[in-house]
Write a structure and sequence with these properties.
The chain has 116 residues and is an alpha+beta fold. It is built from 5 helices and 4 strands; from the N terminus they run βααββαβαα. It has one domain: Dimeric alpha+beta barrel (Alpha-Beta Plaits), CATH 3.30.70.
Length: 116
């Protein structure tokens, strides 16, 4: 399974709902993630002003995580929400090994223009 980092900024509607009825959102979200075959690894809130929510999840496909984020964003609980694929150190090394092996074949626009 692939790892993904989801981050976002909770909305005013989220704060209003939580103040009116404090909830453990992790417990409430877990069955939803299970229905999407997504495993929750971390579910954290922070004091940031740009981003105050971070979650690390595991899923088989990007499409599963995109669906998750679209549903959650549509709920109005976040003013922004994004995700990205995360790589373990050994996975990232393999990615750069492929790049290392292929980089000589790349021709940049500056090379073609004769300025690079």
């Amino acid at each position: 399974m692939n790892k993904y980092i989801i981050s976002g900024k909770t909305s005013q509607d989220f704060a209003t709902a939580m103040l009116n009825k404090p909830q453990n959102r992790k417990q409430l979200v877990e069955p939803f993630l299970d229905s999407l075959n997504i495993k929750m690894n971390e579910f954290l809130f922070a004091s940031g002003t740009v981003s105050n929510f971070i979650s690390v999840v595991s899923a088989k496909t990007d499409e599963q995580v995109e669906a998750l984020c679209n549903i959650v964003y549509a709920s109005g609980n976040f003013s922004n929400l994004s995700w990205s694929r995360a790589f373990e150190a050994d996975e990232y090394q393999r990615i750069f090994e492929v790049g290392h092996d292929k980089m000589e074949k790349y021709v940049s626009a500056l090379q073609v223009a004769g300025t690079g």
